[in-house]
Amino acid sequence: MELVLSTAIGVMTGCGVWLILRPRTYQVIVGLSLLSYAVNLFIFGVGGVKTNVPPILVDGVPNSTLADPVPQALVLTAIVIGFATTALFLVVLLASRGLTGTDHVDGRNEPK
Amino acid sequence: MTGWSHHLIIAPILVPLVVAALLLFFDERQRVVKAMISLASTLTLVVVSLALLRIESGPNDFDGVYLLGNWAAPFGIVLVLDALSALMLLLTALLSVAALVFSLARWHAVGAHFHTMFQLLLVGLNGAFLTGDLFNLFVFFEVMLAASYGLLLHGSGPLRVKAGMHYIAVNLAAALLFLIGVSLIYGTAGTLNMADLAARIPDIEPDRRMLMEAGAGVLGIAFLIKAGMWPLCFWLPTAYSAASAPVAGIFAIMSKLGIYIILRLTMLLFGEGPSAGFGADVLLYGGIATIIFGTIGVLASQALGRLAGFSVLVSSGTLLMVLGINDGAISSGALLYLVSSTLTISAFFMLIELVERGQDAGAIVLAVTMEAYGDADEDEPEEGDGVTMPGTMAILGICFAACGILLSGLPPLSGFIAKFAMLSAMMGTGAIGVPPTATVWVLVILVILSGIAALISMTRAGIRTFWSSLEGTVPRVLVIEIVPVMFLLFLTLALAVQAGPAMQYMDTTIRTLSNPRNYIDAVRNAAVVPDYDGVSSSNAGSK
Prior knowledge:
heterodimer, A: elongated, B: mainly alpha, two-stranded antiparallel ribbon, 1% strand
């Protein structure tokens, strides 16, 4: 389980980093989205990987059989904020496209 | 502890937040009403932050901890007011008044929702200065950044959109690093409360401590991007010089936010104990590289906007370097330098717009490398109405000279006092009879050289702008545009005149910071407010 999760995070981070280094804004935004998914999974991971356990404290149930609720709350916040800023970036991307007529990050066509 | 003064701590966040929401109900055509509400909010913030500063430095046992939702410290989010955050709040409020008044001449009219975004930026800044919780810091950071994206694009134009896109991309990546750092710290230490974290660090086992330090390092990168440490700073001069003048004026405090958090966290988490001094070398050498890069940039800049942008880097570099040494006396000089340089750079950004207004296309050709930066033709907003300033060129010239004096650290303004305080403390670091180490000599030389570079560059720019302009057209400058600049410069003069009390305050601040035990105890022992029926319960829930 841990191996699958960490491989997934690693692959997504790798793809994300490669994409944000590309010269097209569309690739950059897809890269940033992939990176934010990877980071969200990572935050989940730091709470310990457990399946089928509730994050709610119940009398008589030992703590070790519970999931940590804090990373889940953090992920929720991170998703909302990441979503909003990505949407904003998309608007700027479209504005840039409209003003310069190209989707190069520097607003100019690549020299062929 | 009790009474209205305690609730005042949350006012710097609530006031602009409520005002920002309120402003959305007004149509863009009701510009005067919006401007007045916004101005009233910033003036309130000045009063509130002055009151907080007075309460905080007062003799009573004001602990400055505000439990949000009335949950005890490690479980709920806390706001913490101490000498440093009170100082930063006041600085932010003063800058915001100046930038807002400046914008009223015409900049606030060139796009939608300027005032709302401006107030939200203040929410983010004030929240980040006050919070005592790492994840809450992330939230306020994002509030500030989201508002700053909008403000940077305010006024539109290809140049701003291009700079804005780079700025947003860099900061989104930085936000992800922030999250990785925070979650690593949570995973190893099991807490996000800064005070609780500081108390738990000595008990973390060595193998987990390494992971915790890695988390702190990743977190630090996110703040260093904001502060503009070389090599994380290439976005900064472009973004700051592309922003409209009042926006750049308030952005001057944003790079200082990065410095503030690094100062707070290093003093709190790595001041003593097994992880003491973590990251100090990075700050020291990074700061040295930043100063060198900034100085070269200042010398190479033809456009005034980029000159100001690189001055931000020089100022950041100086501060980072001092944080790297982490010596009490030098740090208090550096705090004074932080205040002085923020005021200067903010005034300078606004002044540049006024000065460049007089330059026509012919004068811009003189700036030979201007083309290289893609300074495209830009739609200038329409001229505002209002009283024109008499004797424009003389006043602009005096303000420009004052900025030059401040940036290069010459007497009689506060730039000199601040640099002198730092340099004299550096020369006196060793014990009596022991000469300062080689590193300290390097720092002294760099601080002086960066001042000389600023002097050379400002002199050259001043001659080109004021003496050898081709047409000699006098820019039309309104009173409400030049008064904020003069106000900020006057503050630096006041800071120089009142250098004694100011230095004393900085000394106290650094002494409080270097003794984190008080901060930790204050947060951990903060008592929850009892229920209305007088029965105190440990988790009374939200009020």
